[in-house]
Design a protein that fits this description.
single chain, alpha/beta, TIM Barrel, M1 Pyruvate Kinase, Domain 3, Pyruvate Kinase, Chain: A, domain 1, 8-stranded parallel β-barrel, 21% strand
């Protein structure tokens, strides 16, 4: 790897997630996306064959080795997909006030009924329950519920055709978050070395607990918040998940659209308080699927997520199937840099920074932020084995860049999704003196400091103990720090 590539460092703290697909599956395109600003590549497990996913992972790791930077891979599981069956004579059109029945039979549908081959739905339906079909384009209200059928009144009419999706917003369905397909996809993702597993259609904390039991610590688990039930149980889900995603697609179907911005802010605020990574996703630059520039409203949407302190913003179809994937990444990159550079925009309120627990491991990162500002430190260097120490420092949203050093490559990759962390895999330390010396060398090597700058160092003693953040030290970098450095970190 070249010297130039060894010191790639983002000029922004908000991270960028890009979904790979037909428009971004080659080595050249994936490398171009990384160089344009992608920190995390998302594999959408809803589409494509396992062999294709393995090839994408191979390419990502090849790019990672060449650029000398940890790259995270997020495997996004499909989750349970609820769909109606087929119609005998093609699409139908429902009008407001029509009575339309959904049932468990396998007979093709007609103007008055359609098959719904999901018995779990019927067990949760009651009079007054709303059903949303085809991403909410058609809305039904249950007027009579039985174990094998539901008679409904059409509230919002429209065209309905084969296998359209069904959402049940105001009910908790007795469905497992992991289908048989998800379990197979999860096995593949873990075998391939995915760093994050995104869990779709989470309804309850138990869904996250089940996934974490299957993952067994081989990856971090991200709960996608896209159902009202998940919003209601947000605190409990947040306590179990390693991170969350504001999945605005289905969330905007199941919740009134006007509720989504407030829910987004609530999820970000809750994640920030818990010190868990939060990703804002769906339709951020939707027009760039077919246009080289976004709308002003889309730019404002990205800017809002950055201002609110989201760890990452995500591209879906824009980078997976769009005509301008690299341009979309570049737009996100420029917007994040611009917004983060607005000194009048705070990076977070005191309430969001404050810890819920008066514990040493939370107090040290808070002190590191304050001290770094007081002494005008050019970087905060944190040593971490599990990532916990670095997450806590990032939670404080300091103005100074954060250099996270870890001996574990899998931890370095997972941290690539976290706000403000510049992660580097390096050899572990065993003494206080070694900690200080290595902090100076690595900060210099990563172009974070120059001679006569100060850095703030955080770590846990005994070294290598996960979660034990109990040391803070201010160090001065002299012009002679690299003289005896052999480059063997």
């Amino acid at each position: 790897m070249t010297a130039d590539l060894q010191i790639i460092r983002r000029n922004r703290k908000t991270r960028i997630v890009a979904t790979l697909g037909p428009a971004s599956s080659s080595y050249d395109r994936i490398k171009a996306l990384f160089l344009a600003g992608v920190d995390v590549f998302r594999l959408n497990m809803s589409h494509g064959e396992h062999a294709d996913k393995l090839e994408l992972v191979k390419i990502i790791r090849q790019v990672e080795a060449e650029v000398g930077r940890p790259i995270a891979i997020l495997a996004d599981l499909q989750g349970p997909k609820l769909r109606i069956g087929v119609f005998k004579d093609g699409p139908i059109v429902l009008s407001v006030g029509d009575v339309f029945t959904l049932d468990l039979t396998d007979k093709p549908g007609n103007q008055s009924r359609a098959p719904l081959p999901h018995k779990e739905i019927f067990s949760a339906l009651k009079v007054g329950t709303h059903l949303l079909l085809d991403d909410g384009k058609v809305k039904l209200e249950v007027i009579d519920a039985k174990p094998d059928q539901a008679k409904c009144k059409v509230i919002v009419g429209g065209k309905l055709s084969d296998r359209k999706g069904v959402n049940v917003p105001n009910a908790v369905l007795p469905l497992a978050a992991l289908t048989e397909k998800d379990r197979k996809d999860l096995t593949l993702a873990l075998k391939a070395g995915a760093d994050w597993i995104a869990l779709s259609f989470v309804q309850r904390p138990d869904d996250v607990a089940e996934a974490k039991k299957l993952v067994q610590g081989k990856a971090a688990v991200m709960a996608k918040i896209e159902k009202p039930a998940a919003v209601d149980a947000l605190d409990e889900i947040m306590a179990l998940a390693d991170g969350v995603m504001v999945a605005r697609g289905d969330l905007g179907v199941e919740e009134p659209l006007e509720n989504v911005p407030g829910i987004q802010k609530k999820i970000i605020r809750t994640a920030r308080s818990a010190g868990k990574p939060v990703v804002v996703a769906t339709q951020m630059l939707e027009s760039m699927i077919s246009a080289p520039v976004p709308t002003r409203a889309e730019v404002s949407d990205v800017a809002t997520a950055v201002r609110d302190g989201a760890d990452a913003v995500m591209l879906s179809a824009e980078s997976a199937v769009g005509d301008f994937p690299c341009e979309a990444v570049e737009v996100m990159n420029r917007v994040a840099i611009r917004i983060e550079g607005e000194t009048l925009i705070p990076t977070g309120s005191v309430d969001q920074r404050a810890s819920r627990n008066a514990a040493t491991e939370d107090a040290i990162p808070a002190a590191a932020r304050a001290v770094s500002a007081t002494v005008n430190a050019k970087a905060i260097v944190t040593f971490t084995t599990s990532g916990t120490t670095a997450y806590r420092v990032a939670k404080e949203r300091p103005a100074a860049p954060i250099l996270a050093l870890t001996p574990r490559v899998e931890v370095a990759r997972r941290m690539a999704i976290v706000w403000g962390l510049h992660t580097v895999k390096t050899k572990d330390i065993s003494t206080f003196e070694e900690m200080v010396a290595k902090s100076k060398r690595m900060a210099l090597r990563q172009n974070l400091v120059t001679a006569n700058d100060r850095i703030v160092i955080t770590a846990g003693v005994p070294f290598g103990t996960p979660g034990a953040t109990n040391v803070m030290h201010v160090a001065w970098v002299s012009g002679d720090e690299l003289k005896n450095y052999d480059g063997n970190d």
